[in-house]
């Protein structure tokens, strides 16, 4: 799966979980600063991403503040 495909799936999840417009979500979009999400919102998004890609995200070990960081993390996990 390409990074672009991963990005598109993550954008759809973020749009579904928030009021954000999918067109406004880019790799540099910060979950807390740009989307004004709290930790519960981020937790729900992480759970959806884990389900979508059948992976486990170690949020304690990773700095996943932006959409791009999550795309890279998912890409790395899928490549393992």
Overview of this protein structure:
With 80 residues, this protein is mostly helical. It has one domain (3-79): ACP-like (Non-ribosomal Peptide Synthetase Peptidyl Carrier Protein, Chain A). The protein has three helices and no strands. The protein starts with a helix and ends with a helix.
- The rounded distance between the terminal residues' Cα atoms is 13 Å
The CATH homologous superfamily is called ACP-like
Determine the structural class based on helices, strands and strand pairing: mainly alpha
* Weakly predicted, low-confidence segments: none
CATH topology: Non-ribosomal Peptide Synthetase Peptidyl Carrier Protein, Chain A
**Topology as H/E string?**
HHH
In the residues, how many domains can be counted? Answer: 1
Portion of residues within helices: 40-55%
Question: How many E-type strands?
Answer: 0
Task: State the shape.
Answer: globular
Q: Number of helix segments?
A: 3
Radius of gyration: 11 Å
Please indicate the percent range of residues in DSSP E strands (runs of 2 or more).
Answer: under 5%
Largest sheet: none
Task: List key phrases describing it.
Non-ribosomal Peptide Synthetase Peptidyl Carrier Protein, Chain A; 0% strand; phosphopantetheine; 3 helices; mainly alpha; single chain; 80 residues; ACP; ACP-like_sf; fatty acid metabolism
List the helices and strands and how they pair.
Layout: H1 3-17, H2 39-53, H3 67-79
Helix pairs in contact: 1-2, 1-3
